[in-house]
Design brief:
The protein is of the alpha/beta class and 274 residues long. It is 49% helix and 14% strand. The protein has an eight-stranded parallel β-barrel with strand order 1-2-3-4-5-6-7-8, surrounded by eight helices. Strand 4, helix 7 and strand 5 form a beta-alpha-beta unit. The radius of gyration is 17 Å and the shape is globular. The two termini are 30 Å apart. The relative contact order is 0.17.
Amino acid sequence: MNRLDATFDQLKRDRRKALVPYVTAGDPAGDDTVALLHALVEAGADVLELGVPFSDPMADGPTVALACERALAKGLRLIDVLQIVGRFRERDTQTPIVLMGYLNPIESMGYSRFAKAAAAAGVDGVLIVDLTPEEAPDVTPDLREAGLAPIFLAAPNTQEPRMRAIAQEAAGYLYYVSLKGVTGSNRLDTDEVAKRVRQLKAHISLPILVGFGIRDADTAAIVADTADGVVIGSALIQALVDRGERPAVDVARNFLAPIRAAMDAGAQTSGNAA
């Protein structure tokens, strides 16, 4: 059993929901991404999503796109992202790490070579934003052979045939994009999200995490009442951008800890009600 499966099994036993922060590798500039990842775990992260900087992040809004630009300006490459994961694993051998990015850098490296290198570094799953389930058989066998979970996205307009195709290829968890649009949007209808999550659970047995549009503790707690967890990225990155002279690790802890507390309080309330 890999770290992702073990983590979600433990969360289920503990009746807790997964908190998954996203940061872009190499950003903020001048800060140690490894230290930032450790700070997020200390603040309550269950899984870490680490963005692989890409020059054309088409699914990402301006906040994440600018983070990619800053990291690329520092010369950060895919191999550097894997080295960051390896350094993180020197202290933390338990927290799952998922790389989130686009197909081109992985294709350039070679699917088999990438999969082996990522697994050796300590990566647990890979979410390739622009990998469709139709194209997945070209990529996922190498990922699975290396012990990496291929993670897929589902959107509000994902139809049942596409959902069945995703269910055949996906592992680790399903990332439900709660809004039509790009990351950082803020028009989230939590009732509609809950309805859609219930529908998805009829088609897939994996944990369902919700991302896009989750910006604060209250929204995270409401969404986690139905979903198996939440992903929060743009709001965290913006907090780091706006931090002024404060250390990035302190800002990350202070941002994430209230979200963790709200989600845990919500899960306890739901458990008592049950």
